[in-house]
Each structure stands twice: as C-alpha cells, then as structure tokens.
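Below is how a single chain appears once it has passed through the pipeline. First comes the sequence as given, then the structure the pipeline wrote out for it. We keep one example in the README because the format questions we get most often are answered faster by looking than by reading.
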Amino acid sequence: MEPVIVRGLSIGTGRPKIVVPVMGADPAELLQAAEAVRHSPAQIVEWRLDGFERVFDKSALLESAAALSAALGDLPLLVTFRTDREGGERAASESEYAALIETLADSGLADLIDIELFTGEDFVRREIEFCHSRGVKVIVSSHEFHATPPKEELTARLEKMERLGADLAKLAVMPQSPEDVLTLLAATREASAHAARPVVTMSMGRLGAVSRLSGEVFGSALTFGAVGRSSAPGQVEAGALAQMLLLLSPEG
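Resulting structure:
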C-alpha cells in the first residue's frame, strides 16, 4: 500500500494519525475551537462545514477558511460538508455540494477534502479529478448510523472508493452487537491487505470504541478524536486517544 503524504505527514504508516474536528456557527466560534485544537495531539484538523451558518456564502467561506488555516499553522486541514443523509447538520443540493468542494479545492487552503460516496459515481469521479488538478487529496466516505452491513458490502464499498480515485477510503458504521464490531474489523483487515491506498474505518458509539484504537493492527490509517464537541458518536477525547495509541504501539 502506498501511503498518502500531506505536509510531510505519512498517512498509512505507523500509528493511525489523529484527526480532530472543529465546528463553529460563525468565525469567532470556529477560531475558538481551532485554538483549543492547536494545544491538542491533533495531527490533522477537520473543518465540519455543515455547522457553519454562512457556508453557502462564498466570500464568508473563503474568509473563514483563510483565518482557520492561518490559526492552524502547519497542521493539515481536511474540509468536510457532512450532509444530513449521512449524519450531518444540513442538506445541500448537488450543485451546492459541488460548489463547496470546488471553491475550497481552488482556494489552496484545504489539504484534503471529503466527498460522500453516495452522491453518485459520476459526481464523485468528476470532483476527485477537480481536486487532484488543484493538488488536493480526497477522502471518499460512507456512513451508516443505524446498522453495520455485512462484511462483503463493507469491503465492496471500500474497493469502489479506491476504484473511483480516492486517496483514502473512509467507512463509518454503527454496531448493534459485539459481532458487528468484529465484522467492521474483519472488513478493514481484508480491504487494507489488498488496497493500493490507505483505508479509514470506525465502528461508532461506545460499543465500537475499540475500533478507534486498533487501526495499526487491523489497517485503519486515521482515527478521529474530540476536543470539546464531538462530531460523531463514540469519539474519544484526543489527549486520551493519543495516550492509548502510544501504549498500544510505543514504536509506531
């Protein structure tokens, strides 16, 4: 598997890299959240655009992106608009979603951009090509907030993401039993063993917390931790997450 390099950070080697989301309804809230993250073990910061009130105002979006990028210094910035159908805070039309992706890719302020798999193959392929033409890496993602599909479906989704051109393939599912967590981990191991690029997986909620710690063993390249407000069920506080990852793999 070929790692993905972002600002000198090698994603896909050693311990999973820690991503910390930031959300804010306005620039002041956003920068306050960014200040807290700067003093955490975050290795990548994810700006969750769906929490920003003026997200569809291009000038406000770019001004806030520039301020956030400056506040984060050398930390890589991942930008994500999580739609309501995949657990986010608002909806977007296809044209609005494409405009957000292309505006931020064009700005030179985003290092990585998240694109949801179920927006459709043609859309995903087109937007990946646009991002790559601007030198931006892409995470293609899929989220299941109510269940864990069978292992074959999970691996098929991850393979499809890579086939469409994703730099990283991300899958998050909700377990209803310990067996569901094992299903996610088995799919992660199988997919990562054959993938050309890194995969990112998690089983959400309290039941799935172990999946956020075991990425180096099973093959998940990123793990998401919280500083203040979490963006998904089961996220571990970033400082505790870093300590646990270090205990599990002192040499990672």
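The mean pLDDT is 94.

See the next section for the split statistics.
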